[in-house]
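[worker-b] picked up task from shared queue
[worker-b] task type: protein-ligand structure
[worker-b] ligand name resolved to zinc ion; SMILES cross-checked against name lookup, match
[worker-b] sequence length check passed
[worker-b] input payload:
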Amino acid sequence: MSSGRKMNNGKSNFYSNGVSEAIIKGIKGASGMRRGGIPFRYLGVKIVPKRMRILDCQCLVDRVTERITRIGAKQLSYAGRLTLIKSVLSTLHMYWARIFILPKAVISNIEAICRAFLWHGHNSNESPALVSGKTICQPKRKGGLGLKYLHLWNIALLGKYWVHTVHIKNVNWRDYEPSINTSWAWRRICHVKNQLHSWLFDENWREGMPEYTVKLGYSWLVEEGFDVAWFPWVNNRIMLPKHKFFIWLVAQNRLLTQDRLMRMQITHHNRCFLCEDAEEKFNHLFFRCSFSRQCLGLLEEWLQVCLPIHEVIDWWLTVRARSLLMKQVLAAAIAQLMYLIWNVRNRCRVESVIPLFVVLIKQVKETLQMKMRGSTVIVRSRCTEEWLSSVGLSCT
Ligand SMILES: [Zn+2]
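[worker-b] inference finished, payload out:
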């Protein structure tokens, strides 16, 4: 043993190469560096030598909660909350998920917090969600909100490192198997390769689509349903996000009208708040109530088209329009009117004051005009241009 070697409870093997402790101390003193230990934090992420525990990821859960429930977030509309959730997940969760496979309990916890915030504006599940977690995690084209299954996104993110051989150098990554003595964290990352095995080793994929992307890997893992016929209606650039979200709820048949609340035994009051003449059901509230009929009549007169008297989805699918743009304008107008009627109905529950229906139609016109100018819409046909001109809308 050399004179510079010092065992110090077996932890100071750095000194066994002959460099004296005095020199090390001198370097540390000059650089200002301190000797650390494990676990430690690196770029905000906790580095642990053993299996990652739920407690090790608690700061991630805390930060997600803090970001989405900060002051003012509760006042956001559903669409605003959805945007905030996507933004927080795309930064905080993705940052961690690019490094580790996160424990399932942590991912479930984050998903529960996000769902509760979306439906209730805070992070506790006091009442059931309007739409199931499985549906909201479907792509928009399949009838969902485009949120991600976080555990599958985690696998797809780490799969990228295998395909681009970030972790393994000078070895065929397809044949690589970790030794039995490797760490837990590394074995979990190697398991990602096995989870993507059937697609990564598919010859057709490699020939037809050589570039692996996280989005592609995720699409392999997620079980997707069929395209919904009403997707183009919701995916309408002339519609405001809050109107899109509302009409998505309509398409899911999830509005909590009084008849539904009665069935859930939440209320005993089933009369329409606007006319008090009939039971409040979806079709009555939006298409048969005297207030709604007057609004629809004015809208029909203005837009020179027959609007739905029931089954709004069927109407949208079959309405005859001169062009796609005209169909989008009609869809945006009826979605906004239904959103406004719903808001009036909600206000009526506490104030019993009904605004003039002319005010609602004026609001629809102004919002449509503002959105058309802001969306740089191009009119391609003369008949659409004439129709827009006759209803007093312009794209410039
Ligand atoms: Zn009514």
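[worker-b] attaching auto-annotations
[worker-b] Residues 324-351 form the longest helix (28 residues).
[worker-b] releasing lock
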